[in-house]
Write a structure and sequence with these properties.
By secondary structure, the chain is mainly alpha-helical. The longest helix has 23 residues, at about 20-40. α2 (about 20-40) runs antiparallel to α3 (about 45-60), α4 crosses α7 and α7 (about 150-155) packs across α8. The protein has 8 helices and no strands.
């Protein structure tokens, strides 16, 4: 089995046995996702960089206790969430500008479509940021980090039914906000 095809769980098993190369492989696979998640949670690029690195140090420490009840990516995001919340309680820093974190446009689209998408994406991000924390984090995990309902429940430590309820209300509020702002459903 090559390093490219080796599963995350197999890599965690190798980390548990002290394999530093396995940590590097997991870092390469998951660092960007963990960093983006923490940056969205904290609003700080500097804090996100520090916390993302701490997550992989924690992976090194906790690998022997990983039971495999969730995906490795879900486990790492759970560690990242805990560390982000802890850091936010400890200190305040300069916040990044949401427009600096806007999505990269699809190069296949015309400039007009790209502009429309950017405008709608920025509006959607503003509306998402205006949601209560419990709804915002569910939307962020689902739509910006591709987590399933059960994975979101694991990351947040809440029942799946609660995730579904929060998702329902968050989507309803986002739809109402988009409609009130004059945006049609669909993309762009």
């Amino acid at each position: 089995m090559t390093a490219a095809t080796e599963t995350d769980r197999a890599l965690v098993d190798r980390v548990a046995k002290g394999d530093r190369a396995a940590v590097r492989l997991l870092f390469m696979r998951h660092h960007a996702r963990v960093y983006r998640f923490v940056a969205r949670q904290t609003g700080s690029e500097m804090m996100a960089d520090d916390i993302a690195n701490e997550v992989f140090l924690e992976l090194w420490r906790q690998a022997p206790g990983f039971e495999g009840r969730s995906e490795v990516s879900t486990w790492l995001l759970g560690i990242a969430r805990f560390k982000a919340l802890s850091s936010l309680r400890k200190k305040k820093e300069d916040w990044i500008d949401d427009e600096a974190a806007a999505a990269v446009p699809d190069s296949a689209d015309t400039p007009e479509v790209v502009t429309m998408k950017e405008d709608k994406a920025a509006a959607l991000r503003r509306f998402t940021d205006a949601l209560p924390e419990e709804h915002r984090v569910v939307i962020d995990l689902a739509y910006y980090h591709g987590q399933s309902v059960s994975e979101i429940g694991e990351v947040l430590g809440i029942p799946v039914a609660t995730v579904k309820t929060r998702m329902f209300y968050a989507r309803k509020k986002l739809g109402e906000a988009l409609k009130a702002a004059g945006y049609d459903r669909g993309w762009p």
